Amino acid sequence: MNPTSTAGHRTRCYGPASDTSRSTNGSSAGSLRAIARELHLSRGTVLRFTEADVEELLIAPHRPSLIDDYRLYLHQCWLEGCTNASALARRTQQLGYRGDINTVRRHLRPHHTEAIPADTPLPQLTVRHVTDWIMSRPEQLTAPERKRLNDLCDRSPALATTTEYADRLATMLRERRSEHLAFDV
Of 31, 108, 145, 151, most Cβ neighbours within 10 A? Predict the structure, then answer.
């Protein structure tokens, strides 16, 4: 890291190119400011990438998608022989999927040439999903959601109790029955 003076500004330079080469605008080719200006990024972003490990940059974290909750259903339908993406998109939209057909197509595109593994892992559960299931009316949950919530409640007695209390509270508020305010603890 060599501090240099460029047009009256003190900048940090990185790499061997910073000592000898100059860009066309006269600033140091390796300075953070020049790189940020050329790539239309902030200096902080450029600094973060210059200090990051190469492996860290190459491994992209899994970003949640709207299709994650319906992946198992899509794979099941695909294995049963329904390979029409628009038909599968309509089916999943009836189950509550809010995305569009292109997302379904992109998800299924690799499976046109290769088979979907039968033991596909479950999508990662989030606190938000489980909370939504607990706070929803039981009749509004889809069959897979209801099954997963019941499985979670079977594994965790505390979650089962929380679910029961939330259901009782929702029923009490919905029916405006104040005589049931005392919970059996």
Answer: 31
